[in-house]
Amino acid sequence: MALFITYGALALFFAVVVLILQRSYVADRNFTDFAVAGRSFSGFFQAMAFFNTYQPGFVFLGSFGFIAKTGVVGMGISTLLAPVVMYLMADRVWTWGAKYDLRTQPDLMALRYDSRGVRIVAALVGIFGLFPWMVLGMQSLGAVFYALSLGHLSFTASVVLGVVVMTIRQIWTIRMGMRGIVISDLFQGVIAYLFGSALIIGLIVWLYAGGASLAALPAEHFQIPGPETDSSLLFLSLTLLPLLCSLCWPDLFVRLYTGSGVASVKRSSAYCAPIALVFVSSLGFLALLSSGRPDVAANPDAAWFTLALAAGGPLLLALAGVVVFAASMGNIDATVQSVGAQIANDIIGVLRPEREAMSERSLMLTSQISMAAITLISATIACLPLPALFTIALFAFQIMVQLSVPLYFGIFSKFGNRQGAVGGMLAGIVTVCVLQLAWPIGVPWAYGLTTGALGLAVNFGVFVVAGLLIRRSKDEQARLDALFENMATAGASPQQTEPILQHAES
Q1: Among 45-54, 160-169, 468-477, which range has the highest average pLDDT?
Q2: DSSP 3-state assignment of 41?
Q3: Mind listing the domains of the chain with CATH numbers?
Q4: Which residues have CB under 8 Å from 187's CB, separation 6+?
């Protein structure tokens, strides 16, 4: 009977998602429709899509467990500030996207730096940074099926089952592209973050009623490493890097393009702010409050399910599983779609000779084939024994944040050039990969700074030096002046397109 309740809840949720997708199916007219849903969605749709991408099921597992183990040092505020970054970027990103028919994040970087090299490197960084999250998403689904099996399935069998279910879900992602993702994200987001917040608050009340209190926790749970320790800057890294990285994720960035206008994008950030405040703070508080329980300390990564089962038996466990399932599904969908679009639009499409430019239909087909392939590859890897979930997630952040230097400089200023953008990103990534092998969390000789923070410093240095030493040509200066000055007419129509690369290097 218990399995009927737990797995039945997942089956019902999955059936509703499929029904929503089937009833809302519209054939994409071109690759812009497929990649950015025709720039047609309102603010609340965008807000739920943003959350379904930025707050995956992993936050209920690895992130929850990290806070339970380490205390307040794991409670970053970056998610609370991410909507502010989205608001500040809305005007220029959306209007450039509409005027120049931009479909991906590397599209915008190619426009800004007038460089195919920047476009390809940015796409590769985005793909390799997102891939660990696809694997984590698959493993999160495995954790859901394992917890809801109540001991009847092994973890490996649970991961395989979760992978099979998610692979079936990708049929609609591949068919419908971004439109299907945003539509399903609305329902999934309501379940994961609105209903999920209510469930979190209910568990907090239950813990307090059972005698739990923050006063009973050890003092080290409330301490941030001070200047006398070799990890004094770890908290700064864990807070600053996710904030800088918030709109570097290609699957998040493209949310700015799916809006029906700048007002819709800004409205979505206004919706996101209060939802983030309630969801993120309450989840972190629940993790901290529960950390004194022996069953949580024994397996922090499964604490979300442990608390639900203890508080309400199989029924509450089923609801907790559906919340994680909803969050994981939306994140995997967005990641797979983003990777497929970048492979087609920014790598294969760019590397082909100009006279053999890919048609809209070829771009869509290449993207769909790439999505199917990346789903199978990530699903296979997810079934293998892997390191701790938090370590994998942190490595993805260290890689992805290297996009922030050329991205933010490129959007908010005219400083910088293609040489600095490419050189900086590559130097930052090499730094991360070399240091990550020895220090996966924090680098002791750098006072706890993560490898991504050190890579970012190298990245920034290369970008600035190149910008100061390599003079801009008159043609390039005129192109940039026109790009930044023509904002008033840039958003007139998505069909009002111009060449992305006017003087790109071969």
Answers
A1: 468-477
A2: strand
A3: 2-389 (1.20.1730.10)
A4: 16, 17, 20, 326
